[in-house]
Every structure is written in C-alpha cells, then in structure tokens.
Design brief:
CATH architecture of the largest domain: 3-Layer(aba) Sandwich
Radius of gyration: 22 Å
Order of helices and strands: HEEHHEEHEEEHEEEHEEEEH
Number of strands: 14
CATH topology of the largest domain: Protein Transport Mog1p, Chain A
Shape: elongated
Number of helices: 7
Number of domains: 2
CATH superfamily of the largest domain: PknH-like extracellular domain
CATH class of the largest domain: Alpha Beta
Strand content: 25-35%
C-alpha cells in the first residue's frame, strides 16, 4: 500500500520545495487576488509576447502574487530557471546598464518602481505602482525574500575567468543562443573589452568542443593555427574582424572584433590560462 502513495508524496515534496512570494514579508502589505503559477507551456498566458525572453534561459516555473498596501501595488514574481548561470543570465539581460547594482542575493538592481535580483537558480522581479518612489518597499521585499531562497549567492565561476585588464565587468552577459552570431556557439558568456570582445562556451565534453572547433575552421575557411591550449586558430572575418578562437578541455573560447593594436594570440593565451582544467 505504501508504494501507491509515493507519487503523491513526491509531488507534495516538489511543491514544498518551490520558492513562493509572500506579501506578509513586509509589514502593512497583503495579498490581493489569487496566487499565480506558470510553467514553460503556459507562461505566454501571463507574459504575452515576452515569454520567449524567459524560455531561452531554460525557464522552469514562475510563482507570483500581487500585494497591496492602501493604494500602492507590487507585482511580485519568482522565476526558477534550470541553473544559476541562467538566472544570472536573465538578470543581466533585464538590468539597466546605466544604473548601479547592489548585493542582494547574487546581484540586484533596484529602481523607484522596479526591483530585480538573482540568487542561485532563481530570478526575482518586483514592479510597483502608481508612479512614485517605491524604493524602500521594493528593497524591503527583495531583502526579505532573499533570505527565503536557498542556494549560493556567489556569481557564476566563469565570470572570474575573463582577464580583468581593460574589461567592462558590468557588461559581461550570458548569451542564450548563437554567441557572436554563430549558431555553432550555442550558449555562452560574452565580455566587452576596450579592444574587442571575449567569449566562453562550455560544451558537454572535450570531444564535443573539438567537434565545434572543426566546424568553425570549416566555416571560416583558410585559418592560421595558433599555439594555444588544446587547439586554436586565428583569422580575419568580414563580420567578426580579427579573431582568435581556441579549445581548452570542453571549453571553446577566444576573442573577436579586435582592434588593430591588439595581439589576438596574446589575449587568447591570457584567457586560456585562467580557464581551469576539467
């Protein structure tokens, strides 16, 4: 008989494990209307045309509520992504690059009417109305729910692998598909430097990464070998300019759109040295 109840027990445990917003986290606020819940198959019912911007970051589910305090309203949503790098990625895609970030969870940004932050595999959004300064309430909600979310507050390890010299650290982002506009580079980080762009793509294995390198060499044509890591080449492309790509273990990485004064091989070598061995 016990086995008959196992599926129900597992389903209940899964529901309990989900992180859900709660209006009572901040005194004076109460839930208005029913709770919301969406998965990938029906997110479009809530997000309308914006759902794809979540799905490309391997969206799993969203739990949401609307909170009210007198005439003030906060729409409070928590999205679970497939991993912490993807939660960071959707945060980076939605932050305002003109404004500073702060340390709530992994990273946060709070405006007078909007707050977002990422922690582990979760991406939290709060939107306030009417049009006035809601910064204090939004920060209070963000700080309170951050304590309820399990997992690490550390940034994705790959962010620390890009050499810091002349790097725009705030501009590092996770590109969910077609890194550098190349379909062969399915998903990875892109970092902006004064002299060009660096990228880092993780494949499932060294063999898979080597296969990507072979296809890239065929795609560019007459490339010049470079003495970096497991295999590398440099080339000048019509669209990506001066570039140097290499493979180290299961990672494909390198530089593109490099200025004339930049040394592609030296820059790629410095990046390769910071990528750990698998």
């Amino acid at each position: 008989m016990t086995r008959l109840f196992l599926p129900s027990l597992f389903a209940a445990a899964a529901c309990l494990a989900q992180v859900a917003p709660d209006c009572r986290l901040v005194p004076g606020w109460q839930q208005h209307g029913p709770s919301r819940g969406y998965v990938a198959d029906n997110l479009f019912e809530y997000m309308n045309g914006n759902a794809e911007g979540y799905l490309i970051y391997d969206f799993v589910r969203m739990n949401g509520v609307t909170c009210k305090s007198n005439e003030d309203t906060v729409v409070f949503d928590i999205s679970e992504m497939a991993g912490s790098d993807l939660a960071y990625g959707i945060f980076a895609a939605n932050r305002d690059p003109r404004l500073p970030v702060e340390k709530i969870g992994t990273v946060a940004q709070i405006h007078p009417r909007r707050a977002i932050f990422a922690k582990d595999k979760y991406y939290v959004e709060l939107a306030a109305s009417p049009e006035k300064d809601h910064t204090a309430a939004l920060r209070a909600f963000a700080a309170a729910i951050e304590k309820q979310i399990p997992g690490s507050t550390g940034p994705p390890a790959a962010l620390g692998w890009f050499p810091p010299e002349r790097l725009d650290r705030d501009a590092i982002r996770l590109v969910p598909q077609s890194v550098l506009g190349l379909r062969l580079l399915k998903r990875g980080y892109v970092a902006q430097y004064e002299h060009g762009k660096a990228f880092l793509v993780a494949e499932s294995s060294a063999e898979a990464a080597s296969g990507v390198m072979s296809k890239l060499r065929a795609r560019f044509g007459n490339v010049q070998p470079a003495p970096i890591a497991g295999e590398a080449f440099q080339f000048t492309d019509k669209y990506l300019g001066r570039l140097c790509f290499f493979r180290k273990g299961r990672y494909v990485a390198g530089f593109a759109n490099l200025a004339e004064a930049a040394d592609p091989v030296a820059l790629a070598t410095a990046l390769a040295a910071r990528i750990p061995e698998d």
